[in-house]
């Protein structure tokens, strides 16, 4: 009976999660969808991939839509036999973002049931975790892969704890393997990497407990073996994805450096430190886990417009010279954010109540949880500081494998956002239920931690201006006193509101716990009070960053690249900042659409109107020189930095010709100017002059100065390619593209002499095959980043196909791993049931 009742409570909790998720996302009831910046960019960049899939029913693993061409592994490509991804899709069956919120709640609920085995605390912890503000910020931004990965943090940890703590080997194996597979399938390796840094502390904790004989060494070894097997099988289910990405990442900005210069060292792996550490959390800024606007909220809070208006008014009234105006402009950053990061969409707010209960948890939770959670929390906070704590960052960048593959260390705080709710409910559960803890001890710790927290808040409220400053170093340097004083006063008001709220929320929590301790308040009522106040706190803060304004009509969410303006469109925009970008880009989109419709041949567009490397509008209509993607091919990124981001009137056009930029678009999005480029090299061309150079630096420097229509720059290491392959000029020779698909190109060539064909196609050494008259021919890299192949005299048919071997190999490994998981799970359940029956028979005989 008790078991059935527990199932009812669990089912009711899941219903509560669905209700909460829908209540937060009420616009979905009217058919509206989230308008997410990164998803808009994705739709543009993945248009060619999506069209190919829709038109052929097949998948292309290469697309020319962005950056001259790149693999689609990080652009939403699908893999045949990818069963674990289908499970992920089925779990995310609810409309976005209801699906994310529900799985965040439900995943932590499972973790709560494992660690405390009480649905009330699991439910409370689920709201603590599922309402973490950072998750709502990344949902608003469109970091869907990131939040999809974080969904599976808690249930994966639940599976591991089932093995280590609960000694439920079979169920632990099943849960760990399943959610390890789902975690990898969500495809955000950075988040998974950070989670496993924290799990390393759990492993060390269990090892130390075994050495100290707090737990049997045999159990530790068996548990570690089961978890290792689970992780290996979970990874194996994603073999295609992992193999393809690991092959790809070596050629990207996350792989080895190619050039030697001030910020790069040839052969060194990973990004340069400046790029890696750009988004580093300030040391003092970490306190916004507890007070959301300690350093302001996002760079553009709702109050920013009013503050900017007042600033402009003050400047007009008090500034009398252009020199003073220029000085002031140097100090401007965000009105409502004054932290150490270049800018931010909002704080990593965990909740005043959650942080307070986490502090209590470090005193009340059992030691088997307490120490590893404390260690993992401290490490991740220190790593989040990035450039603000270089000794640790340098150590991890230089010595910890793969750490230098990831940027934005501030995002490692997702680990704290998992562990603080966990230690909070562990401590709260023991505070209420463990009779080993004396009332005197509970009261003492409650008074010390509660009094200390409230006292700390009072100090900040009284002395906040002098302690926190509320201005950046740039503002202090360049702003006159009248402007600086205004900003400090306004920012202090923002902080004070949130600090007072935090004081009230913590005071209510302390009072509820104290009254329960004194038997003046029922435990269940105390939990309800804590839950409701925390819910109100996090809900109201989250609504600053993900609210009804983030939802738009379906037509705009699914087609954000509108090409026609109308009164209806203007009415729909109605001042919505998300939709204003759609309206403002109508003219440039129409221009791009017109180019694509009038000239249907294969070429690329250089579009400077929206920022070459910060838009995918161009890619939505035609292949682009630029794009928007965090994991670009290294060679292409080097060329962008050398010639596109730093424009030279002679060298840049030369490189654009090389990349077959047939049309150049200048001006602004309202009045774009199209300039046809008749000098573009085309899709392929023959060269008879070869310039051999010794270093990559010489290669990239040469392509901006040579006549690349006649001469190809070749690395000396490829000189042997031309052994017994003479190249001779033929003015009448030609090579033309006859068929284009993103993963297959066909050319027809004619020449009286042997030639080197250079293709305006990005060199990628994995998966591309070149066939001359259907016989595979070796190809090399030319002009630093393009493909080239030797073509004998005569008429020839040349075909390029992208057929990565890792896809087929990975498919079978994925299927075998999933089959092994099913087989072992079935055997484990059978064995468990068999033993249970034996136990029942033994009891009956006894």
Q: Compute the gyration radius: what is it?
A: 30 Å
Distance between the termini: 24 Å
Spatial arrangement of strands, main beta sheet: 11-12-18-14-15
Shape: globular
Low-confidence stretches: none
Structure, described:
With about 850 residues, the chain is an alpha+beta fold. Among the domains are: about 80-250 and about 805-845, no CATH class; about 685-805, no CATH class. The protein has a five-stranded antiparallel β-sheet, with no helix packed on it. A four-stranded antiparallel β-sheet has the order 8-13-17-16, with no helix packed on it. The mean pLDDT is about 90. Helices cover about 55% and strands about 10% of the residues. About 45% of the residues are buried. The radius of gyration is 30 Å and the shape is globular. Keywords: Membrane, Plasmid, Transmembrane, Transmembrane helix. This is Membrane protein YfhO.
Topology (SSEs and partners):
Elements: H1 2-24, E1 33-34, H2 37-45, H3 47-56, E2 62-63, E3 70-71, H4 83-91, H5 98-115, H6 119-130, H7 133-141, H8 144-150, H9 153-164, H10 169-185, H11 189-211, H12 217-236, H13 239-249, H14 273-276, H15 304-318, H16 322-330, H17 352-364, H18 367-384, H19 390-399, H20 414-433, H21 439-468, H22 473-478, H23 481-517, H24 523-542, E4 551-552, H25 554-558, H26 567-573, H27 577-584, H28 586-598, E5 604-607, H29 617-621, H30 634-644, H31 651-658, E6 661-667, E7 672-676, E8 684-687, E9 689-693, H32 696-702, E10 711-715, E11 734-741, E12 744-751, E13 755-762, E14 768-772, E15 775-777, E16 779-782, E17 786-791, E18 794-802, H33 805-845
Parallel strand pairs: 5-6, 9-10
Antiparallel strand pairs: 1-4, 2-3, 6-7, 8-13, 11-12, 12-18, 13-17, 14-15, 14-18, 16-17
Transmembrane segments: 7-25, 98-116, 123-143, 149-165, 170-186, 192-212, 219-237, 348-365, 372-392, 412-433, 445-463, 499-517, 524-541, 812-832
Organism: Chryseobacterium panacisoli
Protein name: Membrane protein YfhO
């Amino acid at each position: 009976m008790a078991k059935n009742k527990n199932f009812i409570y669990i089912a009711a909790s899941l219903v509560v999660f669905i209700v909460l998720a829908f209540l937060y996302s009420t616009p979905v009831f009217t058919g509206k969808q989230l308008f997410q910046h990164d998803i808009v960019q994705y739709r543009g960049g993945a248009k060619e991939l999506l069209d190919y899939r829709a038109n052929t029913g097949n998948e292309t693993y290469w697309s020319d839509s962005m950056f001259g061409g790149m693999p689609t592994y990080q652009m939403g490509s699908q893999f045949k036999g990818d069963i674990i991804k289908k499970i992920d899709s089925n779990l995310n069956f609810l409309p976005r973002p209801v699906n994310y919120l529900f799985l965040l709640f439900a995943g932590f609920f499972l973790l709560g049931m494992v660690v405390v085995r009480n649905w009330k605390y699991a439910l409370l912890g689920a709201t603590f975790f599922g309402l973490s503000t950072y998750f709502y910020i990344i949902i608003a931004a469109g970091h869907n892969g990131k939040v999809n990965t974080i969904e599976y943090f808690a249930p994966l940890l639940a599976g591991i704890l089932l093995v280590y703590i609960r000694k439920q080997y079979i169920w632990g194996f099943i849960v760990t393997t399943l959610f390890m597979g789902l975690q990898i399938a969500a495809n955000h390796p950075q988040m998974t990497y950070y989670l496993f840094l924290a799990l390393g502390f759990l492993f060390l904790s269990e090892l130390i407990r075994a050495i100290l004989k707090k737990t049997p060494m045999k159990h530790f070894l068996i548990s570690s073996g089961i978890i290792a097997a689970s992780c290996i099988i979970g990874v194996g289910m994603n073999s295609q994805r992992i193999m393809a990405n690991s092959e790809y990442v070596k050629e990207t900005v996350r792989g080895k450096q190619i050039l030697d210069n001030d910020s790069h060292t040839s052969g060194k792996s990973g990004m340069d430190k400046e790029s890696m550490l750009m988004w580093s959390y300030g040391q003092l800024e970490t306190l916004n886990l507890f007070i959301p606007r300690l350093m302001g909220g996002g760079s553009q809070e709702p109050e920013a417009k009013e503050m900017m208006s007042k600033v402009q008014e003050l400047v007009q009234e008090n500034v009398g010279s252009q020199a003073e105006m220029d000085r002031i402009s140097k100090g401007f950053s965000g009105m409502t954010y004054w932290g150490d990061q270049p800018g931010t969409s909002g704080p990593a707010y965990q909740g005043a109540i959650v942080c307070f209960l986490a502090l209590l948890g470090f005193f009340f939770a059992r030691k088997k949880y307490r120490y590893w959670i404390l260690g993992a929390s401290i490490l991740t906070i220190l790593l989040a500081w990035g450039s603000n704590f270089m000794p640790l960052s340098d150590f991890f960048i230089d010595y910890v494998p793969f750490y230098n593959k990831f940027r934005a260390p501030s995002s490692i705080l997702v680990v704290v956002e998992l562990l603080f709710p966990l230690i909070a409910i562990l401590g709260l559960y023991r505070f209420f239920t463990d009779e080993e803890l004396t009332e005197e001890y509970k009261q003492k710790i409650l008074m010390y931690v509660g009094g200390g927290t409230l006292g700390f808040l009072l100090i900040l409220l009284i002395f906040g201006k002098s302690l926190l400053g509320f201005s950046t170093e740039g503002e202090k340097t360049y702003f006159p006193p009248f402007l600086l004083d205004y900003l400090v006063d306004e920012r202090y008001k923002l902080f004070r509101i949130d600090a007072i709220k935090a004081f009230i929320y913590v005071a209510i929590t302390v009072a509820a716990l104290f009254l329960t301790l004194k038997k003046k308040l029922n435990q269940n009522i105390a939990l309800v009070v804590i839950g409701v106040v925390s819910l109100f706190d996090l809900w109201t803060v989250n609504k600053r960053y993900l609210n009804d304004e983030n939802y738009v009509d379906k037509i705009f969410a699914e087609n954000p690249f509108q090409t026609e303006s109308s009164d209806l469109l203007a009415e729909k925009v109605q001042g919505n900042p998300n939709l204003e970008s759609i309206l403002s880009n109508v003219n440039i989109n129409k221009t791009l659409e017109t180019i694509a419709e009038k000239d249907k041949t294969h070429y690329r567009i250089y579009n400077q109107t929206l920022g070459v490397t910060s838009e995918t509008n161009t890619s939505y209509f035609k292949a682009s020189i630029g794009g928007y993607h965090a994991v670009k091919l290294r060679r292409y990124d080097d060329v962008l930095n050398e010639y596109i981001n730093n424009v030279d009137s002679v060298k840049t056009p030369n490189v654009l010709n090389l990349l077959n930029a047939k049309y150049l678009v200048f001006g602004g999005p309202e009045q774009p100017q199209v300039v046809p480029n008749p000098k573009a090299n085309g899709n392929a061309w023959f060269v008879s002059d070869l310039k051999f150079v010794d270093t990559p630096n010489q290669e990239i420097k040469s392509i901006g100065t040579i006549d690349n229509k006649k001469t190809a720059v070749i690395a000396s290491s490829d000189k042997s390619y031309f052994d017994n392959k003479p190249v001779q000029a033929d003015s009448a020779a030609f090579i033309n593209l006859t068929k284009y698909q993103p993963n297959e190109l066909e050319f027809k060539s004619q020449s009286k002499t042997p030639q080197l064909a250079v293709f305006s196609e990005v060199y990628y050494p994995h998966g591309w095959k070149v066939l001359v008259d259907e016989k595979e021919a070796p190809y090399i890299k030319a002009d630093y980043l393009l493909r080239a192949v030797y073509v004998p005299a005569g008429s020839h048919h040349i075909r390029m196909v992208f057929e990565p071997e890792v896809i087929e190999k990975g498919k079978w490994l994925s299927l075998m791993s999933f089959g092994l998981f099913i087989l072992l799970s079935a055997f484990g359940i059978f064995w468990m049931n068999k033993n249970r029956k034996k136990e029942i028979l033994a009891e009956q005989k006894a």
